């Protein structure tokens, strides 16, 4: 009995007899070999899913077909890739398609209107997200653009910054099953790590990489502030403080505070770091707008002074959006004026229209001097426009539901039922916000106390620490207690 080695290292045997064929026996004559191969081996090849070839090692009897031997479940290429330092291995919490789209939209604003620093990192992140959306060809083109950006940076910095890009390249080609290209980029990464005297063949503990991870985490959302802060702290342990690393530490500390507003110690820490940056770089308007946020409700005069400086001198629509938040409480009209300036710079940025709708809603609730119907139309129009630019925005739809409810309860309920159908794929914060709105609707519009309580309890069961939603939920449960 001879045989062929199976795809997992086993053996599939056939009797080497010259008896009548076709049947269960192999042909004894070479002229019958092709037909026998087609009859027996073609199905076998299909079962291996193209993973292995069946090389003919001996034509005449006895003949044996053999597979290359490898340990069961061994995946050396994948194991090397998992050791890389790149967006594919940093375990970002990419929640769903809506989250990807939101991040791509904010990245587009950052790349077009923000400072030139970290451009290579943001392009690499954009490539990663486009790959997740199923556009590997575009992702590769974006990585090529990122590589050109890095080549324009000061001499000697390219190898230390390109590890991220090469890691992303290797992973994308791996998903495309272009293993020759994967090996090519792994070899380049290994050479760079060797040149940097790294103890690891496919990674290097250098400050540049820690900083790239920190900036990427912040770009994915300020909820990653603490993780980003740890990255910048590690980078600062490895080199003398630079403007970039000091900014990273200050911004990540500020981001952490925005997700724990009641932490006064964190607020003071971020304010101190931001004030230090202002003294050395008085025209850094991103620093100023974050600093203004830390002074809100504590020193309004200082907060307004900083926000005014940003509005008068910055042409970055995201910074203008942040400045408008400073005016929101005391002067929603000024916040609206600031947002209109930002929209003139970047009309398709959905967050500008969403925030504009929020400020019109504030005017609506304060009994604006303008006709109520006009303010209502402005608010509805703003939220609708935000949905045109980002159709997946759950928050825009929930805000529209509230406004529709002032005219037609049926329309409000229809929005909630529509969002409910998509809830399983929504982010945790979107789920919490939905249950809060749905509970309020059941309680206030339908008078269904028990149904509302079930909605609030469902909100309570959604994992995740989102301060605004948690605070609102606590208030609702106290009212029903």
Report the count of strand segments.
2
> Largest sheet at a glance?
2 strands, antiparallel
Strand order of the largest sheet: 1-2
CATH architecture of the domain at 75-251: Alpha Horseshoe
CATH-assigned fold name of the domain at 75-251: Serine Threonine Protein Phosphatase 5, Tetratricopeptide repeat
Under CATH, the homologous superfamily of the domain at 75-251 reads Tetratricopeptide repeat domain
Mean pLDDT: 85
Structure write-up:
This protein is mainly α and 481 residues long. Among the domains are: 75-251, Alpha Horseshoe (Serine Threonine Protein Phosphatase 5, Tetratricopeptide repeat); 427-480. Helices cover 66% and strands 2% of the residues. Strands 1-2 form a two-stranded antiparallel sheet. The longest helix is centred in the middle third of the chain and has 18 residues, at 158-175. The protein is globular, with a radius of gyration of 30 Å. The protein starts with a strand and ends with a helix. The model is unreliable at 1-72 (pLDDT under 50).
Give me a quick take on this structure.
With 481 residues, the protein is an all-alpha fold.
Topology:
Layout: E1 2-5, E2 11-14, H1 33-47, H2 76-81, H3 97-113, H4 119-132, H5 136-151, H6 158-175, H7 179-195, H8 207-219, H9 225-238, H10 243-258, H11 264-280, H12 285-295, H13 300-313, H14 317-327, H15 332-345, H16 350-365, H17 372-389, H18 394-405, H19 409-422, H20 428-445, H21 449-461, H22 467-480
């Amino acid at each position: 009995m001879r045989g062929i080695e199976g795809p997992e290292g086993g053996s599939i045997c056939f009797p080497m007899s010259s008896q009548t064929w076709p049947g269960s026996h192999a042909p004894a004559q070479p002229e019958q070999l092709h037909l026998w191969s087609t009859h027996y081996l073609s199905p076998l090849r299909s079962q291996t899913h193209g993973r292995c070839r069946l090389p003919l090692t001996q034509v005449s009897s006895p003949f044996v077909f053999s597979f290359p031997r490898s340990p069961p479940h061994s995946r050396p290429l994948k194991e090397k890739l998992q050791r890389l330092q790149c967006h594919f291995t940093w375990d970002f919490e990419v929640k769903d398609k809506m989250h990807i789209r939101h991040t791509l939209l904010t990245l587009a604003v950052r790349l077009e209107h923000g400072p030139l620093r970290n451009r290579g990192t943001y392009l690499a992140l954009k490539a990663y997200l486009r790959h997740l959306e199923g556009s590997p060809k575009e992702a590769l083109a974006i990585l090529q653009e990122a590589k050109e950006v890095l080549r324009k940076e000061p001499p000697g910095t390219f190898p230390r910054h390109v590890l991220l890009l090469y890691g992303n390249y290797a992973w994308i080609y791996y998903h495309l099953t272009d293993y020759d290209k994967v090996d090519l980029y792994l070899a380049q990464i290994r050479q760079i790590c060797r040149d940097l005297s790294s103890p690891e063949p496919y990674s290097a503990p250098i400050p540049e990489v820690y900083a790239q991870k920190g900036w990427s985490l912040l770009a994915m959302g300020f909820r990653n502030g603490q993780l980003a802060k740890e990255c910048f702290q590690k980078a600062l342990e490895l080199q003398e403080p630079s403007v970039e690393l000091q900014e990273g530490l200050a911004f990540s500390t500020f981001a952490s505070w925005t997700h724990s507003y009641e932490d006064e110690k964190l607020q003071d820490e971020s304010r101190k770091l931001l004030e230090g940056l202002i003294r050395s770089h008085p025209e850094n308007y991103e620093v100023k707008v974050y600093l203004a946020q830390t002074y809100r409700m504590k020193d309004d005069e200082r907060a307004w002074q900083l926000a005014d400086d940003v509005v008068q001198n910055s042409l970055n629509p995201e910074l203008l959006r942040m400045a408008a938040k400073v005016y929101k409480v005391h002067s929603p009209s000024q916040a609206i004026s600031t947002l209109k300036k930002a929209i003139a710079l970047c009309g398709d940025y959905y967050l500008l229209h969403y925030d504009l709708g929020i400020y019109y809603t504030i005017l609506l609730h304060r009994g604006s001097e303008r006709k109520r119907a006009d303010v209502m139309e402005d608010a509805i129009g703003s939220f609708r426009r935000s949905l045109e630019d980002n159709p997946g925005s759950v928050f825009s739809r929930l805000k529209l539901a509230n406004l529709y409810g002032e005219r037609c309860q049926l329309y409000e309920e229809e929005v909630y039922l529509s969002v409910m159908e998509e809830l399983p794929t929504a982010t945790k914060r979107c789920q919490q916000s939905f249950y809060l709105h749905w509970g309020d609707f059941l309680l206030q519009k339908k008078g269904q106390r028990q149904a509302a309580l079930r909605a609030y309890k469902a909100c309570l069961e959604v994992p995740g620490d989102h301060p605004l939603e948690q605070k609102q939920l606590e208030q609702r449960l106290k009212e029903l207690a």
